[in-house]
Amino acid sequence: MEKHKQALSNSFFICESDASLPQSFEEKIQGTNDDASDLKASAVALGYWKDPFISYFVAPQSGRLRTAEMHRGCFVRVKGIETIVRQFLAVYGSQGQVLSLGAGYDTLYWKLRQDNVALKCFVEVDFDNIVLKKKAVLEEHAAIFNPSSNAHGSAPVKMTDSKNEIHMGNYYMVGSDLRDVKELNDYFVTKHVLDFAEPILIVLECVLMYLSSGECQNLLAYLVNAFSNSILLCYEPAGTGSDNFMTIFESNMERRGIPVPGLQNFKDDAAVRSLLLNAGWEKVTHWRANYVFEKCFPSDTVRRIQKIEFLDEPILLSQLLQHYIFAIASKGRYMNRLSFIGFV
């Protein structure tokens, strides 16, 4: 039991930015993006998956704790979300819109573009500082990230002059605080980057746990009412109702001075369903991350990554993954297509 607790303390949710320095709430949340991006870069460097873009945003720092459990957990998170996004775009193609809230240094758009995946638009939202840093990377490495306006190699699409906004072809990123839904809506309405009536996949990846109950309800209510034909993909830590995982998780985050009031919405499966159904989505399906890894990923993929790093106790990984959840909620006339999207 003690070993299990220690593993929980050292696993997916560890954040190693310097907590001794005075930081605002926004800076602390941005620090979790740096940590997650570092872990992604580390896993990619080891060969867990291919991502030729992440290294431009962050290089793995020496001396950081990165266990095999952390790398595999990161693999499940990244590839699980990517699987759903690709499924959605396979169904809706050039009609499909993706809205990623709290996107950080995510590189999925460029991987999709590299594979010539059809989509209408890909929109990311995060704090201003994250947008500024991401924009600086895109400008510095324009030959890598900035697409040509056509297949004949004409001048690349120029990014917007706005400091907290990026626009490159059908890719957009804007700086906004998700606690202020009016600011978010004003951007969408003013810039016309999204079609409110067309199918949209909204991605919330480890975002809701940082919001208070009221902030979470406001954000979800806005999303479900603004986008009449929407699918929501949510990935968060989640309790099982039968252990003290959430208490340990919360304690670890509090040591960094990062409140996670939204964890109460993910205390068990029933709480997750209630959160999304009460917000207004009409159908909710969810899977624990251990099920996704053990039952839904291709067996040859699982065997390949199992060879990358040795696991002393494989059962521990399964127990840890059990405490993370993928949830998909849908609303509108496209609900009948939800059967094509998910893990089987």
UniProtKB/TrEMBL annotation:
Signal peptide: none annotated. Its EC number is 2.1.1.233. Transmembrane segments: none annotated. Keywords: Methyltransferase, S-adenosyl-L-methionine, Transferase. One of its GO terms (cellular component) is cytosol. The keyword Transferase applies. It catalyses: [phosphatase 2A protein]-C-terminal L-leucine + S-adenosyl-L-methionine = [phosphatase 2A protein]-C-terminal L-leucine methyl ester + S-adenosyl-L-homocysteine. InterPro entries: LCMT1, Ppm1/Ppm2/Tcmp, SAM-dependent_MTases_sf. One of its GO terms (molecular function) is protein C-terminal leucine carboxyl O-methyltransferase activity. It holds the Pfam family LCM. S-adenosyl-L-methionine binds at residues 77, 102, 177-178, 205. Coiled coil: none annotated. It is an enzyme of class 2 (transferase). Methylates the carboxyl group of the C-terminal leucine residue of protein phosphatase 2A catalytic subunits to form alpha-leucine ester residues. Belongs to the methyltransferase superfamily. LCMT family. This is Leucine carboxyl methyltransferase 1. It comes from Trichuris trichiura.
